[in-house]
Amino acid sequence: MQAAQSGRVRYRILLMLFLVTTVTFADRSSLSIAGTALQAGLGIDAVALGYIFSAFGWAYVIGQIPGGWLFDRFGTKPVYTLALFAWSLLTLLQGFVGWLPTTWAVSSLFLLRLLVGFAGAPCFPGNARVTASWFPSAERATATAIAGSAQYAATALFAPLMGWVVQALGWQFVFIILGCLGLALSLLWLKNLYVPREHPLLGAAELQLLEQGGALVDLDQRSGAGGPQWRHLRLLLTQRTLLGIYLGQYCNNAITYFFLTWFPVYLIQARGMSIVGAGFAAAVPAISGCIGGVLGGLLSDGLLRRGHSLTLARKLPSVFGLLLSCSLVLCIFVESDAAVVALMTLAFFGKGLGSLGWTLVADTAPRQILGLCGGLFNTFGNLAAITTPIIIGYLVSLTGSFDGALLYVGANALLAVVGFTLIVGRIHRLELPADGRSAAA
């Protein structure tokens, strides 16, 4: 009742986050939908496709720490808006490489994927800053989960649609359509994103709810002069809690990037589905992952409101969900396509349930360097964007089968459980002292 009476401007901000993150993941997964047709059109093998898949990840990882620093230095709105416009424009340009000679087309596509990765690097550190400033602690996991569930919504919505586009118009139009959509959304984002104290529709009651609930409403006001110091990286890299979270995110993202890159190819090449059929089949686990992600946030915040510790509220959904995601390994032993889709649906429901990494960043990062901490977290997590496509490409090329790939992804899910249970200790906010030499609860 209190939340309803206080106002709902923060939910409008959450809707914008969801839409932007949906387009972000549609852009980064666009190559997987077009992958088989592109592979045939350009005459490249599985290893070459794996490297093209990974190109996004190389630049995305390199851009994380600078992107997080830019947020802490200049604030959320200008950095995020410029990034959204840039990666949408670069996505659009990928649609024109097919008209180049083959060698130039492959090189240009690889380069553009690198640039898309670099331009998109600030996205999730920016999301963490927005949710930390716009949502109290007891709503933060739900808000983060809803925004994060956009990665599954992107596949559920765009995989069938883009599968039809590939078949009807050609793979180039996947990039053209998504690029134009992102450019339009960047204008909407520029018009609607504000920090809490500057939002023209935010009432006093809702601002009070945010402040009293632990939202960092003055986060962007602290951006500017000085910003974070690079010596703070050493501080972040010596915190056991953060190291465990980083490991868990890397392993969780190995599952994500299997889904975003090789999963449609697996359905087409290993299961004999058509491009359109693979698009619809990929949508079912994506919808399940979206549901699991939202439920994970609701469960975590519900445990917190019922008086359980922050540690239990965040760890329980993470560990249980990641254990469920191991079920994708069972696809090795089943024959029917329906069974494969059912197992993947269960696995990605679990993956969504356990995807609370960004909530943990918002809960634990020193408030003065939340962007830098988010960038470092996403650097570790998105190393999987580099390693997963390449490793799977080699496994498929060497064995002629996707069995090794499924085992690899399942092993990462188990390793994430180890990280959350044995390495991450008590979850608490780290504070940055004046001298920056150590952090304390």
TrEMBL record:
Location(s), subcellular: Cell membrane
PROSITE patterns named among the record's database cross-references: MFS (PS50850)
tRNA processing among keywords: no
Membrane topology: Multi-pass membrane protein
Lineage: superkingdom: Bacteria
Domain Major facilitator superfamily (MFS) profile residues, every copy: 13-428
Keyword NADP: no
A Pfam family it matches: MFS_1
Matching InterPro entries: MFS, MFS_dom, MFS_Na/Anion_cotransporter, MFS_trans_sf, Sugar_P_transporter
Membrane-spanning ranges: 50-71, 78-97, 171-190, 241-263, 275-299, 320-349, 369-396, 405-427
PANTHER family: FI19708P1-RELATED (PTHR11662:SF399), SOLUTE CARRIER FAMILY 17 (PTHR11662)
Annotated family: Belongs to the major facilitator superfamily. Phthalate permease family.
NCBIfam families assigned to the protein according to its UniProt record, in alphabetical order: 2A0114
Protein name: MFS transporter
Organism listed in the record: Ectopseudomonas khazarica
Lineage of source species: Bacteria, Pseudomonadati, Pseudomonadota, Gammaproteobacteria, Pseudomonadales
